Amino acid sequence: MNDQLPIILLGCGGHARSCIDIIENDGRFRIAGLIGLEYEVGNEILGYKVLASEVDLDKMKKIAKHALVTIGQIKTPEIRVRLFNSIIFGGWSTPSIISPKAVVSRHAIIGDGTIVMAGAIVNAGARVGSNCIVNSRALIEHDCNIGDHCHISTGAIINGEVIIGSSSFVGSGALVHQGLVIGKGCVIGMGQMILKNCPDQSRIPAW
User: Which domains does the chain have, with CATH numbers?
Assistant: First the structure.
């Protein structure tokens, strides 16, 4: 499509592959290339060239004005936060990307640089911050508030009116009771059932 906007992706791993598939299906953007580690430069990811490393990011503005962080997040959001700040301070536009196979209420808010993946549901009144991952088949129920730089992982269920602080991770298949508050920088392990509030920096390992 001639009206597609070129976009640069920052990251070349498994999460990047999933993002590529969603961006292709979304149809608004044309992937101009990827930014990776120095040893990855010159490789191809699903047919798209790794053009440069992070140190040459600014040079990529000549081919695209849009960028998206496509590195995953499990134990720490630090790399995603750093890259996101680099593109924001560098004057790039960082759009939200929503899979055509996701269901996002028109009454929900999705922040800049956030990707909502296939099968995910974001219901009415929910707010999802910037630079988040709402992964495949995750459910964010009505009136939730998800902070910036969070990863709601595959199949996680966040029930209504839950607040999750910035830079937190909720693992695959985890279940969060309605109305709870999960603090900043928390890591909720795979399959956990959260029945009480979690203070900042909580670490709840997987079963």
Answer: 5-89 (3.40.50.20), 97-202 (2.160.10.10)
